[in-house]
Structures are given as C-alpha cells and as structure tokens.
Amino acid sequence: MLKDRPVAFCNACNEYSHDSAVINQRHTRTKNGEKCEGLFRSALREDDWERCFACDGTGSVMGKACDRCDGEGWIVVRRY
C-alpha cells in the first residue's frame, strides 16, 4: 500500500513530517544523543517529492523498513 506523502522536512537532518503544523518550526528532536537544531521546511507540492523506487512508495522491502527512504516511501527532492 502506498504511503501518504509527507508535507515537511527538516533542513538539518532531513527527517520528514506529515504534520503541516510543524512547518517553519524548530526541530528539536534528539537522535543518537545529538539534538537537531534544524527547521522544518514546507514541501507541500507534489513535485517536492519522488516516490522511493526501492520500495515503490510502500516504505518496506521484504518485510523490513526500506533503507533508502527510512520507511517513509518518499524522497524529498525540494531543497530549501
């Protein structure tokens, strides 16, 4: 099943979000002991994203999270 396209991405760590309320907000999540200080950028247009070719947008390959898209099913192609 095709996953929903995200609407935002962090300009520092490239994490995606499906919540439009985070657009232009600081990303303060701690990952691997490091705090991200990035900003979520808008990626609302269809052409901001490409469906991941490795998992065909499903987020999984052979029952595991897709390595290429981190299980999101999409790759952001818009840059800042």
Largest sheet: 3 strands, antiparallel
Which strand order spans the largest sheet, edge to edge or round the barrel? 2-1-5
Question: How would you classify the helix and strand content by structural class?
Answer: mainly beta
**Average pLDDT reading:** 92
Radius of gyration: 13 Å
End-to-end separation? 29 Å
Number of domains: 1
Shape: globular
Quaternary organization: single chain
What fraction of residues sit in β-strands?
Answer: 25-35%
Query: Which regions contain 5 or more consecutive residues with pLDDT less than 50?
Result: none
Number of helices: 0
Give the helix level as a range of percent.
under 10%
Order of helices and strands: EEEEEEEEE
Number of strands: 9
Characterization of the model:
- The protein has one domain.
- A three-stranded antiparallel β-sheet has the order 2-1-5, with no helix packed on it. Strands 3-4 form a two-stranded antiparallel ribbon. A two-stranded antiparallel sheet has the order 6-9.
- By secondary structure, the chain is mainly beta.
- 0% of the residues lie in helices and 28% in strands.
- It has no helices and nine strands.
- The mean pLDDT is 92.
- A hairpin with a 2-residue loop joins β3 and β4.
